[in-house]
Design goal:
With 683 residues, the chain is an alpha+beta fold. The chain is built from 27 helices and 18 strands. The strands form five sheets. Strands 3-4-5-12-11-10 form a six-stranded mixed β-barrel.
Length: 683
């Protein structure tokens, strides 16, 4: 009975967390995104910045309300551990980690040689006549009420839609911390030697947060082993990874249920640490579906033991007691009583307190038999919609300028050279196509006033050539960009022929916006790369640093750059807009028909071509078209509806500006009609 129940819970957690293939796709996507877009492509205060996903999201979990953690590191700064490692050139700033008289895992970052770098003007502090980097100043320089950010632990938090994004500004050390060498001495059986080698080579990070009981809380930094933890999580078998998923769910829905944020003493990091220690000490049976709950119960008892003793040893630096900050005194006693009460009530009671697990367990008896579902999975691949959307987001350029374009192309070439996997090849293709499309418009917008006609012709020919190359990829969004390109060139007949072809492709594809009201799972006999290329249409992304067409010039206004870098438009909406704009000059009846279809689409759409986050720009485009057609009252109605939608594209000020302009034209038209109406009645 217990073994059967263990298998059932295993399948429930696999359904919540994802299959091994799905998790592998997420990880490949994240690693490729970090390499393509986070490999030193940005510049802050004169420092070359690299981005990397971390935390549960970076490890492959996709819970609905989980945060996204990003490590923002300065690549051209390396922190050393002793003066013998100082190999910096004389014209560079050198840093050294000073852990003397500090709690284990914490220390001060001393500046050895100070040069003219903008960063130091904001982060310097003096302690006993020596210069150090202040963790408080590091966080404060990136926080502003204007951009809606706030400090959350070592990170700077902000809301991106309905998701909380936490960015931790950190420093890099290429060397492994001397205080953590005991980790390699005791890791004889787990993790594997290959994993240990990768961990040693990755070094560590320093995040700007101090120890609450230290003397220099506002200035000391904490050693972060996020890269090592991520490497260990990648090396786990899928059943072991699901065990951590069960611990996270149990923590959130049972232990921390109905608790305020300040009362949530245990975190998922404590659960991860318990699993790591249990695996290394070989204190539980082989992790498999039959023993799934036995392994969970052993990890849970280890957490209870730690709370009772008031000691949670860090996996890499055991001398660092992670309970020392919060779990002590009366808080420790209350938490222990709560955990021990759950333990006494037993395993079955604990699991049924989780709403997610209980919901699936109540329906598990009516599911297909295990053998049938395995047979089906061999013939048909199953993809999560959110994983496909995440894959498309990973192919987007973070910003568009000449430096980032060259850097991205070089990164694509390097990535495909060393890892020519099918999904990475597709990502490289999609990134290149996207870059070519925006580059074509960028070349059209460049000023060649001081250049010869030959240079202008060369730029025109190059933009046309790269746009044709991008269309050969074959996606419907590529056709939309091509139609917009030829409309910009005033080749209306060519634009309409491309629009007709794009409409046919759009009818055969599945449109995915940022969120979707459709089923969260898609099944196909094709691989993910083939399926995405041939069967999926994504929203059109327009950079606000690139000029595309006159009618959307206000929406591409540079004054909104501080809020959002992209404007996202559903492909069907943009197609009808382009059809209306072209036919204004060559076919009035078709122009009116396109306007009617666009209006019907917005009034009757059930999620196939529009998703909620992009309805603000969709109503905006309808209002623009109605304004150009002279239907001022219909335009006012559309702009007012745009203001009611969720402001995903951050165009509220532009909408208000357009609304006032149309109301003024409507008022002028009404006054003219009332003025000349008596003369019209004579005739």
């Amino acid at each position: 009975m217990e073994e059967r129940f263990s298998k059932d819970v295993y399948y429930v957690i696999r359904k919540i967390v994802g299959t091994s293939e799905g998790v592998a796709i997420r990880r490949d996507t994240m690693d490729a995104r970090d390499f393509l877009h986070g490999n030193g492509g940005s510049d802050i205060f004169g420092l070359e910045i690299a981005f990397a996903l971390s935390g549960g999201f970076g490890e492959g979990f996709r819970f609905d309300d989980s945060d996204i953690d990003v490590m923002v590191a300065a690549k051209n700064i390396n922190v050393i551990w002793n003066l013998g490692q100082n190999k910096k050139p004389y014209n560079k700033t050198s840093f050294m980690f000073d852990s003397s008289e500090m709690p284990p895992g914490y220390g001060l970052i001393q500046i050895l040689t100070k040069k003219d770098e903008k960063l130091l003007e904001f982060m310097l502090c003096e302690i006993n006549g020596k210069s150090y980097l202040s963790n408080q100043m590091c966080r404060r320089i990136f926080v502003s009420e204007n951009n809606g950010t706030w400090i959350s632990g070592p990170s700077i938090a902000l809301m991106e839609g309905h998701v909380q994004l936490e960015q931790a500004c950190c420093l890099i050390s290429d060397s492994w911390p001397p205080s953590a060498f005991s980790f390699f001495n005791r890791s004889q059986s787990w993790p594997k030697p290959r994993v240990l080698h990768d961990i040693y080579r990755s070094g560590c990070r320093f995040v700007p947060i101090g120890h609450r009981l230290g003397y220099n809380e506002g200035h000391d930094w904490r050693i972060s082993f996020s890269l090592a933890e991520k490497r260990i999580m990648y090396s786990l078998k899928h059943c072991q990874f699901l065990l951590y998923g069960l611990m996270k769910i149990f923590l959130k829905e049972v232990i921390n249920r109905c608790s305020q944020e300040k009362d949530k003493l245990l975190s998922s990091y404590h659960m991860k640490t318990a699993i790591f220690w249990a695996f290394q000490k070989n204190s539980m049976p082989r992790c498999c579906p039959q023993n799934f709950l036995k392994c969970f119960w052993i990890c849970f008892k280890l957490v209870i033991k730690w709370v009772y003793e008031g000691v949670c040893p860090n996996f890499f630096i055991p001398e660092n007691n992670m309970f020392l900050r919060q779990i002590h005194g009366s808080a420790k006693r209350q938490l222990f009583c709560k955990l021990y009460d759950l333990y006494e009530k037993g395993l079955f009671y604990c699991l049924y307190q989780s709403l997610s697990i209980k919901k699936y367990l109540s329906r598990i008896q009516v599911d297909l038999p295990r053998e049938v579902s395995k047979t089906v999975s061999k013939r048909c691949n199953t993809f999560l919609v959110k994983d496909i959307i995440e894959f498309e987001h990973a192919c987007m350029l973070l910003k568009f300028d000449s430096k980032s374009c060259i850097k991205t192309l070089n990164n694509i070439e390097t990535m495909l050279k060393y890892n020519p996997a099918q999904i990475l090849a597709l990502m490289g293709q999609m990134c290149t196509v996207s870059l070519f499309q925006h580059l074509a418009f960028y070349l059209m917008s460049c000023s060649f006033e001081d250049c010869h006609n030959k240079s202008r012709y060369g730029a025109h020919k190059l933009s046309c050539h790269i746009m044709k190359l991008s269309v050969e990829f074959g996606r419907v969004t590529d056709q939309v960009f091509c139609a917009m390109y030829y409309y910009r060139k005033k080749n209306y007949h060519r634009t309409l022929s491309i629009i007709d072809k794009a409409k046919i492709l759009l009818e055969r594809t599945l449109y995915l916006g940022q969120t979707s009201s459709m089923s969260p799972v898609i099944s196909s006999r094709k691989s993910l790369s083939t399926f995405v290329k041939k069967n999926i249409a994504f929203s059109i992304k327009l950079y606000r640093t690139v000029f595309y067409i006159d009618e959307l010039k206000l929406e591409q206004s540079p004054k909104d750059l501080s809020q959002l870098l992209l404007t996202c438009i559903p492909p069907a909406v943009l197609l009808y807009m382009l059809e209306f704009l072209c036919c204004r000059y060559i076919d009035a009846n078709r122009s009116q028909g396109a306007l009617v279809k666009l209006s019907d689409l917005l009034h009757s759409d059930e999620g196939m071509y529009l998703t909620n986050p992009f309805r603000d720009i969709s109503w905006q485009i309808l209002g623009i078209c109605q304004d150009l057609a002279g239907n001022f009252r219909a335009a006012i109605y559309a702009f007012e509806n745009s203001l009611k939608e969720y402001p995903h594209n951050k165009i509220k000020q532009i909408t208000l500006q357009r609304l006032e302009h149309v109301k003024l034209k409507c008022k002028i038209e009404g006054s003219l009609v009332s003025r000349f109406w008596p003369y019209c009645t004579i005739f």
